[in-house]
Design brief:
The protein is an alpha+beta fold and about 280 residues long. The chain has one domain: 4-Layer Sandwich (Nitrilase/N-carbamoyl-D-aminoacid amidohydrolase). About 25% of the residues lie in helices and about 25% in strands. The N and C termini lie far apart (about 50 Å).
Length: about 280
Amino acid sequence: MTADVEANRSLLVRETESAAAQGAQLVVLPELHNTPYFCQTEDVANFDLAETIPGPSTELFCGVAKRLGVVLVISLFERRATGLYHNTAVVIEADGSIAGIHRKMHIPDDPAYYEKFYFTPGDLGFHPIKTSLGKLGVQVCWDQWYPEGARLMALGGADLLIYPTAIGYESSDAREEQERQRGAWQTVQRGHAVANGLHVIAVNRVGEEADPSGQTCGIRFWGSSFVAGPQGELLAEAPADASATMIVDINMERSEQVRRWWPFLRDRRIDAYGDLGRRFIDD
């Protein structure tokens, strides 16, 4: 992503057109794709990047979805009201209508990821969005580390778990630590696939983006977008160091078979999980 918003959106439209021409029915874009990852610094001027929903980006991508006949998942810096902003995924139906939104629930605040400065935590919970392709359990980036959100999406009838993402290495970390982080990122999401008997689609940014403040060495996003099947099997994985548009066939009926073999939802002890609502079990 570059500082040229219009160029970024034009690139995404061309890639969506290419995917649709190859038979894609569902197209998923990475987190906050219109701009560089501005959360590396705390700068009030960056609030000018936000937009309303509906707004310019949804108008553009709704038109693209309708023209191509695809369901499209986009990711925006949402201006909900004066002084109130969210990190929001928008699901657009193939007829060009907005099927629903998910406001990022878990907001990180770490060096180079100062998201709490910009985003209010989501208030829509974990509810799948109905589309012509099924119910999409869409969450955003940091949400992908939490099994609770994946489970709630599954319990709500999600047919797929989808995570637009912007995550990478802080370049001062040792190579071994960087690889542990990337491996953990993939492993935890493949675990969501297994635990819930669902396919997982994780779409990450790629490339290096400098820290405008110069306080850090910037972020090298680790790419590695992937699709995992309901037993955690890798169906496709993008490069770590180059942009890619992948076309991946998903057998939506496989979840039914896997859940018959491994009936985790049947055997859940819902009578024994009350303490999950506590911050920590001090006693």
